[in-house]
Amino acid sequence: MDRATLAAYDKDAAAFAQDWHDQPAPVDLHDIVARFFIKGGATADIGCGSGREVAWLNAHGFPAEGYDASEGLLTEARARYPTLRFARAELPDLSGIAAGSFDNVLCETVIMHLDHALIVPSVRRMLELVKPGGVLYLSWRVTAGDDARDGHGRLYAAFDTALVRTELAAAELLLDEEVVSASSGKVIHRIIARRRD
Length: 197
What we know:
Largest sheet: 7 strands, mixed
Structural class: alpha/beta
Shape: globular
Order of helices and strands: HHHEHEHEEHEEEHEE
Helix content: 25-40%
Oligomer: single chain
Distance between the termini: 30 Å
Number of helices: 7
Strand content: 25-35%
Radius of gyration: 15 Å
Number of strands: 9
Low-confidence stretches: none
């Protein structure tokens, strides 16, 4: 994770959490998860933030745990959802999570906060977490032109989608689209891949 981005999330975790929870529900994400994820399968949310999607997954038949690099956001998640499991893990290493641990892995709008050199190893590592036949959902905010930082100092990396597609070449792509997020109103790219047996 980009250090300035992580510092921003730690510093203003409560405000970010409130903003995310005040946004409209990501019904497009929920529909896609319901279509492609393995029902009842162990699920990881990588970059879970304040836990909104972990709670939704658990409530809808996808037993999930959340991982994030920000201790501030994990504190918010644990306060909001004290019965759910959250742990610290940072891309690309995701230390402490065994390969092949999950039927479903969700990573919603996270990898654009990574330095370019960390994007490919992060995608590779997340696919490793998926069991054979399992599903990886990956999305990121699209930044045109050059890398940018917002008013909080968060990095929004501008990178070619081919980086991600190439790393997922051995998997079966189930969905590959650029859309406007129903929740944030921002342009995102999403890819869903099934790990081959």
